[in-house]
Design brief:
The protein starts with 11 loop residues before the first strand and ends in a 7-residue tail after the last helix. The chain is built from 4 helices and 11 strands, in the order βββββαββββββααα. The chain has a single domain, classed as OB fold (Dihydrolipoamide Acetyltransferase, E2P). The longest helix has 13 residues. It has a 6-stranded mixed sheet. The protein is α+β, with helices and mostly antiparallel strands and 181 residues long.
Length: 181
């Protein structure tokens, strides 16, 4: 019998490592649908400050949040390495803007420690732990806590104005895709 080369031992976890500024963050790979290049994001009026807007993802309009803004970090500088991590929140796709994605890393579950509120700069409600490696510390996000249930409901209840929807539709047409009506 051939073993699945992507399978990890029960005592290991796979993480997507990304950066916000000089800090390393991670999410469980099982929570990530895909990672895409930064693309056109259409602002939505009256959205919360951490919501960049909406974008077209293969014919679907998805909200995009800026993790820097969400965590109270200074705004990012323009960069070609910025990415959107697309994750599933309660059956709905949400994009999360990050400065760059570095790697997918398999670590021992023993390398993950509970967060120490004195050490980290991001609000501890967003943290699942700290990944301690020989050369660096990585903040492991609790994806389920990045947005509260009421914020998720708000994001998916946002009314995309006619102008914003036309911009997203134009982007979809430019990409050769059809948006659902």
């Amino acid at each position: 019998m051939i073993e699945d080369p992507t399978a990890v031992a029960p005592s290991e976890v796979q993480l997507v490592i990304f950066r916000l500024g000089e800090d390393f963050f991670a999410m469980l790979i099982s929570n990530v649908n895909e990672i895409i290049r930064l693309q056109k994001i259409t602002p939505v009026p009256k959205a919360p400050p951490f919501v960049e807007g909406v974008t077209n993802l293969r014919g679907r309009v998805i909200p995009v949040i800026d993790l820097r803004q969400r965590f109270g970090l200074p705004p990012r500088e323009e960069s070609t390495s910025a990415r959107i991590i697309v994750a599933d929140h309660e059956g709905k796709l949400i994009g999360m803007m990050v400065d760059r994605v570095d790697e997918v890393l398999t670590v021992s579950a023993d390398a993950i420690e509970p967060p120490d509120e004195m050490v980290v700069s991001v609000d501890s409600q967003f943290l699942a732990g700290i990944v301690r490696l020989e050369d660096r510390l990585i903040i492991l996000l609790d994806q389920e806590q990045v947005l509260t249930p009421s914020e998720i409901k708000l994001l998916h209840g946002m009314k995309v104005g006619a102008k914003a929807l036309k911009e997203v539709q134009a982007q979809a047409e430019e990409d050769g895709e059809d948006l659902p009506s």
